UniProtKB/TrEMBL annotation:
Domain of life, per lineage: Bacteria
Gene Ontology MF terms: AMP kinase activity; ATP binding
Gene expressing this chain: adk
Protein name: Adenylate kinase
NCBIfam families, A to Z: adk, PRK00279.1-2, PRK00279.1-3, PRK14527.1
BP terms from Gene Ontology: AMP salvage
The keyword Phosphoprotein is annotated on this UniProt entry: no
Span of domain Adenylate kinase active site lid: 127-163
Binding-site residues for AMP, renumbered to this chain: 31, 36, 57-59, 85-88, 92, 161, 172
C-alpha cells in the first residue's frame, strides 16, 4: 500500500506516520529523515542539500524528488510505503505520479489529518523545550512539568523555541495553506483523499486512519 500523509504543522503527522507504518508493515519515508540520512552518508544529493541549507536556501523540487525516488526504490519499499512531508507541492505530487507510473504503481490513499487552526497554534505555541536536551518537550496545558519551568528528566530550564512562537506558527501555517494544501485538491480529483478528524487521542486517530484505508493490510492480520 502506498500512502501519502498530509496535514498542517502540529496535526500529529510524525506520530501517526510511525504508528501507521508499523501497523501496515511498510517503511515510513520522511523528507527530513531523507535529508539527514543523505547528508550523514555524504551522498552527492546529500552534499547538494547540505550546501543549500547552509546558505539558507530552499531545497529544489528536483533534489527532493530524486532523494524520494532513491528511497522508494529500495527493497523494503517494494510492497509500499508511507510518505510524510512529501510531496510538499503540486509539482512534487505530479513528479511522484510520474515516478510511480513508470514502475506500474500508484498512490492508494491520501490521508488528510484535519485539525482546527486555533488548536494547531495552541499545540505548537504551548510547547516548552529543555535547554539541556531538546528531546525533552513539555506543554503548558497538555504535558505540564512537575515544577513550573523545569524539566522533569534533568531539571534543565524549559523555554519556548523561536519556531514555536505564535507569530512563527501562523507564518508556517500560511506557507502550508499556500504551498502544500493545494495537493489535497489535486489528489481529491483522483478520488484518493480521506479526511481524518485528528482532534482526538493518538490511538483514536490511528484507528480512524486505519479504518479509512482501502483494502488495508495490517501487520499480524
Amino acid at each position: 500500500m502506498r500512502i501519502v500523509l498530509v496535514g498542517p504543522p502540529g496535526a500529529g503527522k510524525g506520530t501517526q506516520a510511525v504508528l501507521l507504518a508499523q501497523h501496515l508493515s511498510i517503511p515510513h519515508i520522511s523528507t527530513g529523515d531523507l535529508f539527514r540520512a543523505n547528508i550523514s552518508k555524504g551522498t552527492e544529493l546529500g552534499r547538494q542539500v547540505e550546501e543549500i541549507i547552509r546558505s539558507g536556501g530552499l531545497v529544489p523540487d528536483e533534489v527532493t524528488v530524486a532523494m524520494a525516488a532513491d528511497r522508494m526504490a529500495q527493497a523494503d519499499a517494494e510492497d509500499g510505503f508511507l510518505l510524510d512531508g512529501f510531496p510538499r507541492n503540486i509539482a512534487q505530487a505530479k513528479a511522484l505520479d510520474e515516478l510511480l507510473h513508470e514502475s506500474g504503481h500508484k498512490i492508494d490513499a491520501v490521508l488528510d489529518l484535519e485539525v482546527p487552526e486555533d488548536e494547531v497554534v495552541k499545540r505548537i505555541a504551548g510547547r516548552r523545550t529543555c535547554r539541556n536536551d531538546s528531546s525533552h518537550v513539555f506543554h503548558v496545558e497538555y504535558k505540564q512539568p512537575s515544577e513550573a519551568g523545569r524539566c522533569d528528566v534533568c531539571g534543565g530550564e524549559l523555554y519556548q523555541r523561536d519556531d514555536d512562537r505564535e507569530e512563527t506558527v501562523r507564518k508556517r501555517l500560511a506557507v502550508y495553506h499556500e504551498e502544500t494544501e493545494p495537493i489535497i485538491g489535486y489528489y481529491r480529483e483522483q478520488g484518493l483523499v480521506v479526511t481524518i478528524p485528528a482532534l482526538a487521542p493518538v490511538p483514536e486517530v490511528t484507528r480512524r486512519a486505519l479504518a479509512a484505508l482501502p483494502e488495508r493490510r495490517v501487520a499480524g492480520e
